[in-house]
Amino acid sequence: MNVEPLVPVTEQDIQRYEEDGVVCLRGMFDSDWIERMRAAIERNLANAGTLAIEYAEGKSPGRFLGDMFMWTRDEDFRAFVFDSPAARIAQKIMRSQKVNFFYDHLFVKEPGTLVPTPWHQDQPYWPVQGSQICSVWLALDRVSRESSGMEYVKGSHKWGKWYKPRGFDGKDRYPEAQGETIPDIDQDRAKYGFLNGDMEPGDCLIHQAMTIHGSGGNVTNHTRRRALATRWTGDDATYDTRPGTFQKIREPGLRTGDPMDCEMFPRIAT
Ligand SMILES: O=C(O)CCC(=O)C(=O)O
């Protein structure tokens, strides 16, 4: 299992992330990681955590499971946080001295699950302020547009907009949250630039927490779409107790303005 990224992160990758708000890094995780995390995901699908949400329930055939904080209860998800190249990749892309692990988020969209992942920014959901905040979205299957490949609105992390979070299932799960209503991106596609593309298992997308992103349904008959997103923060990130952020597995014991370092958001030695 590789500890270092299989391919070095280059200055060009970092600049692309800074300009576009997302970069796709190819072939970063070896097949041992892919197999290990696939097996861990199967266990999780059979026994999801208390914060898991079935986004497709009552809306579409198939299954779209979102689960979080798997690392707090499963050794393999935990190993991914501490021993995989994800922390090093995040640290490099964010140009950060330190890197804290924020949480892990599983997204499994099974074949024939027609619900999209709605357009959103991540940071409005999260109790964090700062700009060195990113996700490493690791593909564990081949991903195409048809199997719900991710799509990003190019450069949207620089718009200076803060959009109100909403449940992926359309429910108003964050009534106390602030923010504008996100524009209907799909109604006006000619107005925006988009970044998307096919992926292989072991490829990952790194996106900044303010970049607008979403995906379509998985309209394939046989292609599963399993992705493990890990969330990372860097030097300038601080905790923020504002109301209307997502539910955590437990409280970290931080106050607004505190650096992220704590047991729940461990600093990873890279
Ligand atoms: O995988 C998906 O459908 C959603 C991923 C996402 O929104 C994220 O990782 O922030």
Describe the overall structure:
There is one protein chain. This protein is α+β, with helices and mostly antiparallel strands. The protein has a single domain (11-239), classed as Jelly Rolls (Sandwich). Helix content is 16%, strand content 22%. It is built from four helices and 13 strands. The chain has helices at residues 11-20, 31-46, 75-83, 86-93, and strands spanning 22-25, 53-54, 64-68, 100-109, 117-120, 128-129, 133-139, 150-153, 194-196, 204-208, 213-215, 225-233, 238-239. A seven-stranded antiparallel β-sheet has the order 1-10-7-12-4-3-2. A four-stranded antiparallel β-sheet has the order 5-11-8-9, with no helix packed on it. It has a two-stranded antiparallel sheet with strand order 6-13. It starts with 10 loop residues before the first helix and ends in a 31-residue tail after the last strand. The mean pLDDT is 97. 2-oxoglutaric acid binds next to β4, β7, β11 and β12.
Keyphrases for this structure?
single chain, 270 residues, alpha+beta, Jelly Rolls, seven-stranded antiparallel beta sheet, four-stranded antiparallel beta sheet, 13 strands, binds 2-oxoglutaric acid
Q: What is the CATH architecture assignment?
A: Sandwich
What is the chain-wise order of helices and strands?
HEHEEHHEEEEEEEEEE
Strand order, sheet with most strands: 1-10-7-12-4-3-2
CATH homologous group name: q2cbj1_9rhob like domain
* Stretches with pLDDT under 50, minimum 5 residues: none
* Shape estimate: globular
The top level CATH class name: Mainly Beta
**What is the third-level CATH name, the topology?**
Jelly Rolls
Beta-strand portion reads 15-25%
Q: What is the tally of helical segments? A: 4
Q: Please tell me how large the radius of gyration is.
A: 17 Å
